[in-house]
Specification:
This protein is an alpha+beta fold. The chain has four helices and 14 strands. A three-stranded antiparallel beta sheet has the order 3-4-5, with no helix packed on it. A three-stranded antiparallel beta sheet has the order 6-7-8, with no helix packed on it. One of its GO terms (molecular function) is endopeptidase activity.
Length: 337
């Protein structure tokens, strides 16, 4: 009887283990199948069967939907300017006449549904919380999983989070740092499991990319996101600040450092970087505590030119070149004026 019980427990454990592996394999195969449905080669966006979107085709805009076997069915549609822009970094917003879909015409170097991806960003400031570049490979060389992948359901950080936009998460597989880790990272496949791994990105150099400010801090591009009193900053693209003068939707937001993040900025020449925040249930703004950048002291010598040396016997420090002690002639004085 005892032997039968042990055999039953052993078989039960083996069954659970096999079931778990089958589920992992099924999930992984499903994701791979999902990834080959409709994939945007430019932004790495993945779309499942039935999804619709707009895309640029030269100077025309096309309305597309994802059909069976990853086939894209597209046709041209008329567009108008958006009533309220949905584009970051100075992008131009266009809206379909017949649907509520919109599309952004991004400035050079930017891409993504809302121009939120910066193709020219090759380094990180601080821990890289504000990194919006296109690196999609980890330190070990593994390819990142799309943040919108169905295999990440149940994970804490995905493109389906409510604040995904301000964290840089979207329908792409680029490295991000949504949880203030030591550097940007992403999810990867390791065997039959999904784990996370850090990405390798260099630190940006220059005062503009330091966690300090020069002057009033108009060029500050650091990642401080709390005010002097410790209140959390609101994202510059928050619906709460949509009608404020300074937000991520301004036409010159890129120059002002405003985008889909909540880092302190000084877009209006105030006494220092600031941000929108809530205070006693009221929407307001408050300055941030950004230190001044310190400059390395320049090397200043207090010694004059050394006196010419000679082998003649003389008192220490006595100038031996008598020509240097001659009076300055008047015509030389006139030349110096």
């Amino acid at each position: 009887m005892l032997r039968s019980l042990h055999l039953f427990l052993l078989l039960s454990a083996l069954y659970c283990s096999l079931a778990e592996n089958v589920e992992l394999l099924r999930s992984k195969r499903g994701v791979r199948f999902y990834r080959v449905l409709c994939v945007d080669s430019e932004t790495s966006a993945v779309r499942s069967y039935g999804d619709t979107w707009l895309r640029w085709k030269g100077q025309r805009v096309e309305y597309c939907h994802c059909a069976l076997r990853g086939q894209e069915r597209c046709h041209s549609v008329p567009v108008i300017n958006c009533y309220m822009s949905q584009c970051y970094n100075g992008g131009t917003c266009k809206e379909s006449v017949y649907t509520s879909d919109y599309i952004c015409q991004c400035p050079q170097g930017f891409k993504g549904t809302q121009c939120e991806i910066n193709s020219n960003e090759k380094c990180i400031v601080g821990k890289g919380e504000g990194y919006r570049g296109t690196l999609s490979v980890t330190r070990s060389g593994e390819e990142c999983i799309n943040w919108n992948s169905t295999s990440l359901r149940g994970k804490k950080f995905t493109a389906r989070k409510n604040d995904a936009s301000s964290l840089g998460l979207g329908n792409h597989n680029f490295c991000r740092n949504p949880d203030q880790d030591s550097s940007p990272w992403c999810y990867i496949y390791k065997g039959n499991q999904i784990i996370w791994e850090l990405c390798s990105l260099p630190k940006c150099s220059g005062d503009r990319n330091r966690e300090c400010m020069q002057g009033l801090g108009k060029s500050y591009r650091g990642t401080t996101a709390v005010t002097k009193t410790g209140s959390a900053c609101l994202p510059w693209d928050s619906p709460a600040v949509r009608r404020k003068r300074n937000n991520a939707w301004k036409s010159n937001a890129l120059d002002l450092g405003l985008s889909n993040h909540n880092f302190c900025r000084n877009p209006d020449g105030d006494s220092g970087p600031w941000c929108h925040t809530y205070k006693n249930m009221q929407l307001t703004w408050e300055l941030c505590d950004i230190p001044k950048c310190s400059r390395a002291p320049s090397t200043i010598t207090t010694l004059g030119p050394r006196a010419p040396t000679t082998n003649n016997q003389a008192t220490c420090g006595q100038r031996l070149d008598n020509t240097l002690n001659r009076p300055i002639l008047p015509h030389i004085r006139r030349q110096r004026k």
